[in-house]
Amino acid sequence: MQGPPRLTAHDGMKSLAPALILVEGADEVNFFSGLIHHMNPDLVEVDVGGLATGPRLVAQSGRRQLLHVRIGNIDVIELGKTDFAANLAVVVRLDEFRSVTSIGVVRDADADAKGALASVANALKAAVPVVPTAVLKSTEGNPRVVVMIMPGNRRKTGCLEDLCLRSVRREALMGCVGEFIKCVKRKAMKPPKHMSKARIQAYLAAMPDDGLRLGFAAKLGIWPLDDKAFDEVEEFIRLVAPQEFPS
Q: pTM value?
């Protein structure tokens, strides 16, 4: 039986940025790149996976190249959800990892925020001098490590979708989304398994552009990135790469 995909470095891999933000999926890559650019519009974004001489990470299965973008001196890299811990362990063992001075690791709490933090610490323990024991606390040593468990704000369960929904909670459109979800719960033979994701899709379906995803919506300014809901995520990003955000 074939196991889940693992990361490997292309032969063309030359370096990693000094600061890494490692996330679960493509939506998270686009969300963080959008928020980072919002925090400092002068930073230039590059799709590193499209550079012949740049660092590229792919699934060994060859199904697709994992998303990897560079914004200023920050690399935001998709590691996958189900195999996040294993792929994180691969990244920290790469020769190119020696150029890294700080790491930000982002995971969804899902049903267990403490379990998500423990999984990150276990994957890092062989590669960093001090493993994180709490979120939003930078460890000592080189590289430094900071962990963010979504949706943050001391929530014990949830995901990035919950955070984005919180940012638009007062919008009139959310009343329409709520009515739609109530109708779905009453009439769908098999309601969605993840109601937060269903709410996000319903909200984005009301936007002028078709087929929007959560992450790209951040780049388009659909999520109000100045909302206090995102304050903790901005704090996390500044802890990972303070040099990119001068006061």
A: 0.89
